[in-house]
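To close the chapter, one final illustration. This time we ask the reader to focus less on the individual chains and more on the assembly as a whole: which components sit near each other, and how the overall shape emerges from the parts.
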Amino acid sequence: MKSSPLESAHVALGAKLVSFAGWNMPIQYTSIMDEHNAVRTHCGIFDISHMGQFIISGPNAAAWLNRMLTNNINHLAIGHGQYTLMVNDKGGVIDDLIAYRTGENEFFLVVNASMIDEDFFWLASHQDGNVTLQNESNLWAGMAVQGPHSLGVFAKVCPGETLPPRNGIATLASGPVVCRTGYTGEDGFEFFTPVADGIPVWEKFVAAGAKPCALGARDTLRLEMGYPLNGNDLSPDHSPIEAGLGFFCDLEKGDFIGRDKLSQQKANGPAVKLTAIQYVEKGAPPRAHYPVHSADGTVIGELASGVHSPSLATGIGMAYLPAEFSKIGTPLQIEVRGKLCLAKVVKKPFYRKPF
Amino acid sequence: MNTPADLHYATSHEWVRLDGDIATVGISDHAQEELTDVVFVELPAVGRAVDAGDPTAVVESVKAASDIYAPISGEVVEVNPEVENDPSLVNTDPYGKGWIFKLKVKDAAHVSKLMDAAAYQSHIS
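The assembled structure is written out below.
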């Protein structure tokens, strides 16, 4: 099992560590609920050192990445990033990632921890002569600082430095790479620094007011936004169109791997859709793999993700369901230990920030 | 860690308060701290007969669902509706308002198979 460069800091904080994607990572420090609420109302910091970083460069980098990924990389100005997907020939999802343009011919990709080797192998097996691939995943410590107070925390830790705009990327004068992205639905940034600097940087952010938050809260936060987690909500068995991520697939940009299948699905409408489901009565928290029933009691699928939403104080989940059951308002039932709990299809995101 | 001296404890972290042949059952302070953030409690049906070690209730945190085992054999005679309405009582008052169910025990002498507070303390440390 791999260890984060920040592991000793987690242990010192009393974190519970679990195996996640081959990494020994904190699941919670004190309470998932408290950590979740800190990110929604103040500021939290997550160790994301397990995530992977690739540098793609060369005169043909943009054109080549546009054949490897679903979104249109030509829309990226230097210093900007986009959410995008890597799909196989059948349109099935290999991984979801963020691609940032760091130069005219250079890109920084941040991929899921569980998929680092597979993604890199996939890219390398399609490598073009004019493109260089570097896997820098072991060189970077990463932390996501998220929440409405994260800008103040940044100002304290990096005085005189400026955060990039939303979805942007910048290299700070002091060396680290900072991206104005995250996976919580809150404003914030992701901060990548050489492994050796990881713990001191983490401690500075914590001292500046960022509450240590772990994978448990990361899961509740992302699911409240309806953001998919690869391995739960995304898999090679389903396309981005089925996952409701058509916005991140530019079918008009020219050829890319999987395009024919995605175009066909978009034209005909997908047979199944990743559907947002919320309880309408009190019940045991929904969890992944619980069966989903139609109103008449027929099993029509299973939850890909499910959790008790701390912000909404009710059960929420997502499931791939036949398209006829994915209309907003459709009554459903979630089976928990043999009991059925009434639920319905809702619009994503589950949680909207109060203004 | 709070471990009241007048209670009996199971290795699976339930506590028992014996009053005549009625055993009140809940989970220990240590257990609630390990589970954190209890958001749902599934109570057994009143009248159900259970053997020591049977999964009898379920306590769910944000993180996971955990079975609560009958620490002693008997029949469920009462359940705590308060923890159904406010599951956080299991966290805030595990030995008081956070009790989960009561059993009419088959044989009160069986309570001697459980640990006393000192033994439970060393079990969790």
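Chain B has a mean pLDDT of 96. The first helix of chain B runs from residue 29 to 35. With these observations in hand, you are ready for the problems at the end of the chapter.
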